[in-house]
């Protein structure tokens, strides 16, 4: 099973879209607080449409609480514009945790330094600072599905 871990997301529409993506791909969504919105906000539900009630989603007080249950190992991948390696160089396992940071500043530097060998980025032109969080999650998630042929379980 693939897990999407959003660390302190700030924009409810992004989280709603990512939640919808998780339902469509049978992934679990983990939200690490503090959040920049309430999970009862209309914008969050609207972006997730009627999928939100089918979403397996968990909220965590902080990353340390999350790591008490899911201790970081080689199946944890950290996505950042600051990483050196490209995401398709990663070797995703059937159970993987894909971490994404805040829309306005990404993952903390100390996380990226600690897990440098497990940090990846999406390629983009030098004129772009970043891409939308939901777009990034979608690209990396589908690469993990492709590598593990997990998409074969989906209806076509």
Give the topology.
Layout: E1 2-7, H1 12-24, E2 28-32, H2 42-48, E3 57-60, H3 63-69, E4 76-79, E5 85-86, E6 96-100, H4 109-114, E7 119-121, H5 133-147
Parallel strand pairs: 1-2, 1-6, 2-3, 4-6, 4-7, 5-7
Helix pairs in contact: 1-2, 1-5
Give a summary of the structure in a few sentences.
The chain is of the alpha/beta class and 156 residues long. The protein is built from five helices and seven strands.
Describe this structure in words.
With 156 residues, the protein is an alpha/beta fold. The protein has helices at residues 12-24, 42-48, 63-69, 109-114, 133-147; strands spanning 2-7, 28-32, 57-60, 76-79, 85-86, 96-100, 119-121. A seven-stranded parallel beta sheet has the order 3-2-1-6-4-7-5. Strand 1 (2-7), helix 1 (12-24) and strand 2 (28-32) form a beta-alpha-beta unit. The longest helix is centred in the last third of the chain and has 15 residues, at 133-147. The two termini are 20 Å apart.
Q: Report the end-to-end length measured between terminal Cα atoms.
A: 20 Å
Largest beta sheet, briefly?
Answer: 7 strands, parallel
**Percent of sequence in beta strands:** 15-25%
Shape annotation: globular
- Note poorly predicted spans: none
What order do the helices and strands follow? Answer: EHEHEHEEEHEH
Measured as a percent range, the helix fraction is 25-40%
By DSSP (H or I, 4+ residues per run), the number of helices equals 5
* Overall mean confidence score, pLDDT: 90
Cα gyration radius (Å): 15 Å
Q: Compute the number of strand runs.
A: 7
Strand arrangement within the widest β-sheet reads 3-2-1-6-4-7-5
């Amino acid at each position: 099973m693939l897990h999407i871990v959003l660390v302190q997301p700030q924009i409810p529409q992004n989280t709603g879209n990512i939640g919808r993506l998780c339902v469509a791909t049978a992934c679990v969504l983990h939200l690490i607080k503090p959040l920049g919105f309430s999970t009862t906000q209309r914008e969050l539900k609207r972006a997730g449409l009627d999928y939100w009630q089918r979403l397996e989603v968990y909220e965590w007080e902080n990353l340390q609480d999350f790591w008490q249950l899911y201790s970081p190992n080689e199946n944890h991948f950290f996505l950042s514009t600051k990483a050196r390696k490209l995401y398709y160089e990663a070797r995703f396992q059937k159970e993987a945790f894909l971490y994404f940071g805040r829309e306005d500043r990404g993952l903390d530097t100390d996380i990226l330094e600690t897990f440098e060998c497990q940090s990846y980025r999406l390629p983009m032109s030098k004129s772009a600072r970043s891409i939308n969080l939901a777009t990034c999650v979608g690209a990396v998630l589908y690469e993990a599905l492709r590598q593990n042929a997990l998409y074969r379980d989906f209806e076509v």
